[in-house]
Prior knowledge:
CATH class of the largest domain: Mainly Alpha
CATH superfamily of the largest domain: N-terminal domain of the delta subunit of the F1F0-ATP synthase
Number of helices: 8
Structural class: alpha+beta
Mean pLDDT: 91
Distance between the termini: 42 Å
Radius of gyration: 21 Å
Number of domains: 2
Order of helices and strands: HHHHHHEHEEEH
Strand content: 5-15%
Number of strands: 4
Amino acid sequence: MxxxxxxxxxxxxxxxxxQEENAFDEYAKSLNxxxxxxxxxxxxxxxxxxxxxxxxxxxxxxAHIAHAQGASQVITNFLDLVIHKKRIAFxxxxxxxxxxxxxxxxxxxxxxxxxAMPLTPELNDKLQATLEKITGKKVVLSTKVDxxxxxxxIAKVGxxxxxxxxxxxxxxxxESIKGSE
Length: 181
């Protein structure tokens, strides 16, 4: 809980700067790339979060990473601040909160669809249009294949979960049979 509050606070601060600069996409791209590097490479995360290393050394390492990613000076300064405040471990959460603020500003929501088999492009488009109609927002879908659901789909968009999988229907049938005994 505390992590999300901290992440939101830093994301909102960066969001207001991005709004002034009209650089939402640029800042989000930089944050996501650097956060992904931290998640993918534990030694990078350790080098940036370990208090055994002096703060100025951690700032230099982050400046090098930011420069290699092509980050702007604003992002480099933001990351420097996050390191000085000892919040760099929360960078993936900050990047996620920042993206959520951008999506809210643009009336977009992220969605995930889980199916037993890959969807055809036509069915994917139809599903996306249906979810956009239900939510009243532009929906950006990512799809996952999970044969364990047996058939049907599970769609998650924001807080909305639509579970039409055969697995959940069988589970419901099982529960109703147990309840009638």
